[in-house]
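Sequence only, no structure available. Ideas?
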Amino acid sequence: QVQLVESGGDLVQPGGSLRLSCAASGFTFSTYWMYWVRQAPGKGLEWVSTISPRGGSTKYADSVKDRFTISRDNAKNTLYLQMNSLKSEDTAVYYCAKDSGTWSPDYWGQGTQVTVSS
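Reply:
I predicted one. Tokens follow.
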């Protein structure tokens, strides 16, 4: 069965950096678009970033553009999100998700908490 397991969330000071990882299993990782999505306290889901199956195409929300970098290692079945210049408004639970093939996620991880605070 499909499994997505995020890790790397932590408490970090404003201006700091974190790298999130998402270990994928149960499907052919290298053939699917993948997403990072976040949910801030008391708010709805916010799309963060998307990456193509081979990593050649990436997209970002305006709120994270030029600060976050999505990448993947298909040999390791792992998705990454490098987050730099973190702000308090980046505080959220971050989820990785697999594309269904129709430009919407169909499987989600359990999430990892990122807290940006001094």
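The longest strand covers residues 18-25.
Hope that gets you unstuck.
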